[in-house]
Design a protein that fits this description.
about 280 residues; alpha/beta; seven-stranded mixed sheet; globular
Length: about 280
Amino acid sequence: MSHENKSIELRSNDLALDQANELASSSLNRSIYEFDFNLICEYFSNMERQGPGSSEVTLKALGFIDNLTEQSCIADLGCGTGGQTMTLAGNAPGQITGIDLFPGFINIFNRNARQLGLSDRVKGIIGSMDNLSFGKESLDLIWSEGAIYNIGFQRGLNEWREFLKTGGYIAVSEVSWFTDERPDEINEFWMKSYSEIDTIPNKVAQMQNAGYIPVATFILPEDCWTEHFYAPQAKVQEEFLKKYAGNKVAENYIAFERYEMELYFRYKEFYGYVFYIGKKI
């Protein structure tokens, strides 16, 4: 199915696009952070991934990491339900700890690990990425797909560095600008949602200034958004609106998600997710 057909399918839910944008208009002056986080958690717990990505991209990023052994300690910060974590576990040795603030995500994470026979070396725990309990220089690899924004890119790189062994790796995906200039609508949306969004060269410089050798940087392909993130949301949104029929908070949240999707299809040449991989020196 072509991307054009997928985008048409994604738009053909219970609320027409115009109605969704009308519902969203009252809430678009605020960011996603101002919605009920329990509602957000319930919404995203119905999907394998809580942000743009794919198994292929996870494996591509993993290909830049070396020296992992069965004794290696890996942390996946902001792991969500563990879609990317299970890919890591299936293709890299070592003990993996997934950390997320939401108990619902961790419950699903640990259930997935059990079902895949990985629970002997993959464990999810409830915790915050700004208050980690790992010992200093105890980790060989820190992974975080689409989640470092919760603490901030620069802060995360700086604070997490102390938990990495010398020569250890950090691999994170982060929304980034592809151009120095962009239309006002998308610029204002992202500056409101995440003011640390920046261009790729500036992000690489931030990684280097934080004490890492920049090992690799690559842009996630469009299918990480269209096929692996937005397409699965169509059914979830339909069921969500049925469950919360008449609930304006839920309707406004779905409208917000649909508006964000529309912005991506309209302005995808200006921004996207980028993997940044660094090695502690």
